[in-house]
Design goal:
- 50% of the residues lie in helices and 6% in strands.
- With 128 residues, it is mainly alpha-helical.
- The strands form two sheets. It has a two-stranded antiparallel ribbon. The chain has a two-stranded antiparallel sheet with strand order 2-3.
Amino acid sequence: MMLKTAAAFVALALLATPALAQGGMGAMIMAQDANGDGAITRAEAEAARAAMFARLDANSDGSLQTSERPSGQMAQMVAQADTNTDGLISRAEYMAQPYRLFERLDGNRNGVLEAGELAMVRAMGGGR
């Protein structure tokens, strides 16, 4: 269940990317490979997450209000980021959430998802 939740956070981080149009969770994860080198660094994952927050924060006030959050299954995932339960999701709260799947996939704990570690992602439809 934790892997499923983490995967949903990763998917949420990439909802507005071109990879979504191509379909598949793997494609969305692989879209984090900003420099196209076949690996995803923690910095690339963080940058993708920050970009998604900026896209969701329509009024640019630094927090996600209910009206700025996605609907459906993703709404619950985003709501869990509200760790101080004030009804708003700050950028800090949002940024703290997306790395569980990254950490799980990073088997050698070097901060980079390398080709071998991304084999599961490619099996989900990530291509490359």
